[in-house]
Design a protein that fits this description.
three-stranded antiparallel beta sheet; DNA-binding; DNA integration
Length: about 325
């Protein structure tokens, strides 16, 4: 430990960091940093780290392994966790609490093909994105599409196939209909037809979209698409680009977890958004929505029906809860002996 360092406990350091950033970060982003650093300070206390002067690269490695192995974090979530830790340690170095350069020992995970199959949008990140869209793009196409995808877990193809008439504002639901002749199909065809309930919040955004920003465009079949631009029905490719655009961390946090220059990053251009390592396509949003429903104790049968999934497929490809989470949720249904 350097003689130049001044003793500081993790919990106090966390509060100093949050106070320092309070005037430059959006409230949703600040809450996200608070949550991530809470995990870190709790780990420090559990491991009897009372003074950050003693914190080392080896401790970074131990914390990373704990979050990845024991807490079973998805790769995208791990990136966010460690990116915040890196910024926190950089701040701590500036106030002589840790060795200078310690933040450089925080290595962010890279996404492999194997990781991509488990990749999903977590609720914390979804809240940040939706808060940003609500503030800067309220009831515009990007906002309403993201709200519906996260809330319903719809496949992007099913969302693009919706018409204005498929939305019932009084009943607060969307009607999914398989229409093969005009080319707006459902993956499971007629078996995928269903009514999908909507919350008050999502209905408010849909109502404002239709009343204020919907261009009224009619497609080549004389139908009025729910998700539409001035040029026609929203395509799957355009829908995918929208999710790429707004899952870039720099958009909703003004920070880059990959230490890229926000002025020159190649992923700033719409045509290059896919080059950001953190972007998500619609499918991880669907997977995240499904897992979020399950974590909120929605029965699997209800989730399967709502998301048009067989229970075997749901278990095999979509349920990202850890074994410990499943055990905890099952336990509440056990009778008291």
């Amino acid at each position: 430990m350097s003689d130049d360092l001044e003793p500081l406990d993790p919990r106090t350091a966390k509060q100093m960091y949050l106070d320092d950033r309070r005037h430059e970060l959006a409230e949703a982003t600040l809450q996200s940093h608070d949550y991530r650093l809470k995990q870190f300070t709790q780990w420090c206390e559990a491991n009897e780290i009372e003074n950050l002067n003693d914190f080392s690269g080896r401790d970074i490695h131990r914390f990373r392994v704990k979050r990845r192995e024991e807490d079973n974090l998805a790769t995208a979530t791990m990136k966010g966790q460690l990116a915040t830790l890196r910024m926190f340690l950089r701040f701590c170095a500036s106030i002589d609490a840790v060795e200078a350069g310690l933040d450089g020992k925080v290595i962010l995970p890279t996404t492999t093909e194997e990781d991509a199959r488990d990749e999903m949008l977590d609720p914390e990140r979804a809240r940040q994105i939706l808060a940003h869209l609500k503030q800067y793009e309220y009831a515009k196409l990007e906002h309403v599409l993201f709200e519906v995808l996260w809330h319903t877990g719809l496949r992007i193809g099913a969302a693009c196939g919706l018409d204005v008439d498929d939305y019932d504002p009084d009943g607060q639901y969307l009607e999914l209909v398989h229409r093969p002749e005009p080319g707006t199909t459902l993956k499971n065809q007629a078996q995928g037809e269903r009514l999908v309930a909507l919350s008050d919040r999502v209905c408010d955004v849909l109502d404002d979209w239709l009343a204020v920003n919907h261009p009224g465009t009619v497609d080549e079949h004389g139908r009025e698409p729910l998700f539409v631009t001035r040029h026609g029905r929203l395509s799957r490719n355009r829908g995918r680009t929208i999710t790429y655009q707004y899952t870039r961390p720099c958009v909703y946090t003004d920070q880059c977890p990959h230490d890229r220059d926000l002025e020159t990053c190649e992923a700033l251009q719409t045509a290059q958004v896919h080059k950001c390592p953190s972007v998500l396509s619609p499918h991880p949003i669907r997977r995240g929505s499904i897992t979020h429903h399950l974590r909120e104790d929605t029965p699997k049968e209800i989730v399967g029906s709502r998301m048009d999934l067989g229970l075997d497929v749901l278990d095999r490809h979509y349920d990202q809860r850890s074994p410990e989470e499943k055990l905890k949720q099952r336990r509440q249904y056990l009778p008291d002996e």
